[in-house]
Amino acid sequence: MSPRQQKRKLSNGYFDVRFDGERITSLRADGNGRGKYGAETIASGGVIAGSISAHLDKERLILETRKGEFSWDLPFDRKGYYDAETHLNYPSPYSTKGVYPLALPFRKFVTSAGQVVFIESFKRLPLGPYFLNFVIARGSQMLFCGDRQQNFDLKVCWPEQRVVDYKIAEDRLTFLTKTVGKPVIIEVLPRGLEDVPSNLLIHPKVTFDPDPEITYLPTGKSLPASDLMTDLMRFGIHWSPKVVVTGDWGLSAAEMHRINDPRSWHLQRLRSELLNYMGFIGYDRFEHFGCMFAWGRFPDYGAGGLLNLPPFNAPYDMRTLHLNGQWIQTITSFVLATRDTSFLRARRARWVATDGNEPQPICGRKSWVQDYVLAAGDVRLDGRLPREVHTLGQTFVATAAFSEIRVRLGTDGKEVARGVISLRSEPSGTLLEQKDFTLEPGHRSQSVILRLSKQRTAGKYFVEISDSDSGRRYFGPGIYWWTDPETKYLGGEATSGPFQGTIHDRLKLLFQYIQKYCGAAEGNLAQYINNREYNVPNYKSGLSNLCTENSYWELPGGGYDAFEGLWYNAACNALAELAEFEDDADSAARYRLLFRKANEAYNKKYWHSVTENGKEISRYHACEDWDGKTHDYGFTYYNLEAAFRGIPSLQQVRSVLWWLDRGYWSRDGGAPPGFARPWKENMYSIWEVAPPFNSIGNTTWLNVTGTLPYLEVVANGGSRCFIGGRDLVVRSNYLSVDNMHERNKRILARFANPDRLTGGRTFNDPGGRGRWFFGEPFVDIADFEAFHEIFPQEGVLPASEPLAYLGMEYAAKGLWLRPRVPSELNLMKFEGIGYAEAVFDFQVQAERKRVPLSASEDENQLSATFVPHSRFNKVGVLTAVRPPGVHQGCQISLTLEHWTPTGWAEVDRTWFSDVADRKWVWLATERWLEPSERYRLTVHDFRAPGGEICGIKLTRQGRPLIDVQQETNILIVHCRYNPRKRRFILRSEADEVLPSLPLTSTLDPGQRILLSAQF
288-327: per-residue pLDDT in tens? Predict the structure, then answer.
């Protein structure tokens, strides 16, 4: 090749491309095709490699490829913390010192599967290839979204590819994919023209009017709230490249993806994964049948390591009773959000064939799921041989005579697997034939043949597979039977142990397990029962200082555990909704009664009061062990989850929120030695996004990683992003939309920081834990899990945003909506929200009218007595903060009272934790208040950070400057995507059908509206 051929270029106004041989060394673009090319898109010294020729076709660069690897080195700077909005890079996570300019050409990447990844996501990752990837299913495309300094986006198509891998260097970010010898097409678009490549999906979008500016104080950067929340939602509900549904992650995945566009690869992948993992039921280590083996075929998280220490000894109880209830809630969440009527009726069929003259296989033709014959842990806790072992079976109907049966099995072990195949006339019938068999290690699909001693006539039969290791060891080679989890076969049922039936039947089985084996049937409380028969020495028993800790959350355990126990309550409510969904009114009523009884028992057991820092606090404690000792480490998440599930009363929830907002988390902040005070003196000052998992350091109760120093592990003072999602919805439902909105602005401010909540624990982190934060506190081993690794929990936070603002509640009847516009806004829109296999836009506009009133003298300047001349539902005061400016942490409370013949009676109260100078704060009631009666607004509980003063504006007469209003909310619902052509309607709580062109309603205070589909 001549030098002229080696060094060449292509240019047409849209692209300027330079080559060195077959490698592209420079690629610049202009989204308008005018030759005003933007930033270089190839790293200095880097290339695009893997093409053999290239040509331009208007706005498309077409690269012919050979089979092999295709790579693209993108400009990158791994050092420091990048702020893509301000084009600055901060060398330190602790301060703004040493900041220097940095402008990278791309701000984010969006795949055809909907996944959104910001450029900041790669800054905290280790050098070299990373174990996650981009999913580009449903189009094999990715948008490279240009920075705002550029006028272009690039849309790249890798034909027939499903993933794009990447590796990280200090000065470049390399994307890698395989090619199949087909052209890779790079198309230039005007920046922002498409949200998703080729607009394959509708991404959510948030609009506030007026649009508040959100400021992140450590850097001083301000951004519009609408843009931040849109970014957070688009990123968060697709951020996880995989759909992980095992264990506690299943519920998070269902909640994370339930607002997705139904065409989303993630949502459809979720459905198939839920079908798969609903197969993992079996005997627990007490020989109780029905336990949800929700970590695949393992009953415990990190089987053989991590929590199961020392390796392979499996000392735990590991019934993980909460997962039974949690999986009931998981499936319910999925079904009510998608309105997938077929999912609950899904039945399994295993691959079975004969040599008879009929179409083969007889059942399980579409098998793709591996149902394990032996779930790990199918051994007694005390090591003795069990009386019951697990088997899988299939009833089938042969329409022709046969002499042999074939089943499709496999093993993922590294040793020979041994089992038994049996033929019976029915599951409990006479044994007709039986044979031992072996499976070679590592073979995913093997035929096992049972040759019969004589030919069998046409008829109904039952074939069963057992594992010879069943009950003999905790970890075995693992025999599985290829299974169709959603069969249309009507000739017989698949069995799992003694069970056969649909997905809905499986949920009922899990519920019966909690009732029967966890004590819920008798005392309406799920618990770990102290079964003395299996009480072997030194296993995690629930005795004082020896807890039953297990699972991903490293739960406190004990005889009664507040977190594990609440899932029985949730399961009662979930099954009530599913029964109503299936038009089974009697079952729905029975489950609702159980839900009420469970809540009463739960509140009686766990609710208590403590005195901390001179204040009396009421909340749920963590657990009560088998010795009757109560353990309370201020578990904020347990309290919020219980509130989210509707267990406590309104007064109890507000007590919890008051503790979070007004109680010091401890006198010294619970900080490690050497840190005498927290950065600020409130519960949220550590993480901003969410409160710490527990507010009191735990050194005596949790095992394994739970007893690492405070803040170093989630189970002991760390936190997770999704706890913030629970927090928002609970505040909106039980306190006020304004209080929630205030909290959410702090979350959005934290999301605006230079790490974008995208760092986190990585396996080469020199601190051993987190290091993702930007700003104080100065603890580099703190543990906060946000958008990193594989955990789907964090996506629950962005998916909770529309729930909190629109008052969304998924129910059997449809989607309940109770939208309320925060007082600083006039209008809000949530666009691109998936529901019932459609996509909707929701617009809510507040209609506010000032109410004339008569005021009277008050004894002090902290209350105002007034008589309204028309009905009202809002009253507010104007705040004063000195010195004025940007503040955080100024607190104020409002109480509204009504005069009665017996004196003043409280109507409602609310509070705020982040008020600013000359801002109205409002107390809104959930009903109309009558005119011509006396009311009193009292302002109290002022608190400001050191050196500041927080108060209210007064009139010339020395009275509080108040305003009284009527407020209604106008809701407009627009369906943007409706492939099933369903007719959606709005119904009032009185079951009145509202006008449908467009779907609109004016809602009074506290009123709900139902969005439902007519089938």
Answer: 888 887 777 776 665 544 444 444 444 454 456 678 999 9
Nearest to 778 by CA among 685, 716, 694: 685
Average pLDDT, the chain: 88
Taking 80 as the threshold, does the pLDDT of residue 775 lie above it? Answer: no
**How many CB atoms are closer than 10 A to CB 387?**
9
How far apart CA 934 and CA 379 sit, in angstroms, is 70
* Main-chain phi, psi angles of 594, to 5 degrees: -65, -35
φ/ψ of residue 836, rounded to 5: 55, 45
Helix (H, G, I), strand (E, B) or coil at 395: strand
Which residues of 271-312 form beta strands (DSSP E)? Answer: 281-283, 289-292
The encoded tokens of residue 901 equal 């013949």
3-state SS, residue 747: helix
Both tokens of 36, joined, read 């005003």
Residue type, 313: N
Joined together, the tokens standing for residue 601 give 């028992």
Taking the C-alpha atoms of 703, 709, 710 and 711 in order, what is their torsion angle to the nearest 10 degrees? -100
Q: How many CB atoms lie within 10 A of CB 159?
A: 14
Buried b (16+ CB within 10 A) or exposed e, 43-69: beebbbbbbeebeeeebbbebebeeee
Q: Find out whether the peptide bond into 190 is cis, omega within 30 degrees of 0.
A: no
Measured distance CA(653)–CA(633) in Å, rounded: 18
Q: Please give the backbone phi and psi of residue 436, each rounded to the nearest 5 degrees, phi first.
A: -80, 150
Q: How many CB atoms are closer than 10 A to CB 161?
A: 20
In this predicted structure, the answer to whether residue 452 has a pLDDT above a threshold of 80 is yes
pLDDT of residue 976: 95
Q: Which residue has the tokens 């990715």?
A: 142
568-605: pLDDT as tens digits = 999 999 999 999 999 999 999 999 999 999 999 999 99
Three-class secondary structure of residue 597 per DSSP: helix
Strands (E), 324-445: 349-350, 352-354, 369-372, 391-398, 402-411, 417-424, 431-439
How far is it, in rounded angstroms, from Cα 663 to Cα 656? Answer: 10
Structure-derived torsion over alpha carbons of residues 206, 210, 215, 220, reported in degrees to the nearest 10: 120
Name which of 189, 188, 184 is nearest 164 in CA terms. 184
Residue 251 main-chain phi, psi, to 5 deg: -65, -40
Exposed / middle / buried, residue 4 (Cβ in 10 Å: 0-12, 13-18, 19+): exposed
Q: Are 345 and 504 in contact (CB under 8 A)?
A: yes
Helix (H, G, I), strand (E, B) or coil at 523: helix
Q: Which residues does 583 contact at the CB level (< 8 Å), separation at least 6?
A: none
Q: Look at residue 421 and tell me whether its pLDDT is greater than 70.
A: yes
674 CB contacts (<8 Å, ≥6 apart)? none
pTM across the whole model: 0.95
Highest-scoring range by mean pLDDT, 302-311, 619-628, 670-679, 696-705: 619-628
Q: How far is Cα 117 from Cα 758, in angstroms, rounded to an integer? A: 9
CB 409 within 8 A of CB 374: no
Angle at 700 (CA atoms; ends 679, 645), nearest 5 degrees:
70
Query: Is the Cα dihedral 869, 874, 875, 876 positive or negative?
Result: negative
pLDDT tens per residue, range 426-448? 998 999 999 999 998 878 899 99
Contact between 90 and 209 under an 8 Å Cβ cutoff? The reply is no
